[in-house]
Amino acid sequence: MRIAIASDHAATDLKTQLRDWLIEEGHEVADLGPGPGESVDYPDYGYKLAAVVADGTAERGIALCGSGIGISISVNRNAACRCALVSEPLSAALAREHNDANCIAIGARLTGIEMAKACVTAFIQTEFADSQPGGTGRHQRRVDKLSDPK
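-> structure tokens emitted (150 positions)
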């Protein structure tokens, strides 16, 4: 899977650990920055992540900041992105299954590496319910309204 990952300065260590682990797992990973020691503004990196997910360069995105809140808000400014803030695997799986989330956000100050890996695994392995045989369309109808609230 093609995955983009970005963070702010509070989450560069978690970003590096997740990036390296995802590569070991066989994924193609685009690290959008920043590098260690740079003080940055999380919206800039949220917007970068959203752009590559929206244009199809990456299939999924992982956004990281201290709490996960700020960067998730910036990713969600792009109408093509559905970024869910997650802190455990069930919320990551449900974000995919019910909301067709194409990005997740994790707070580096709140979530350790093993839990972050569990969240990412659930996010990657779970399919959107309405893309599966027997899907009823009820989730797709709701997801469509997320990008077009009319």
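The longest strand covers residues 2-7.
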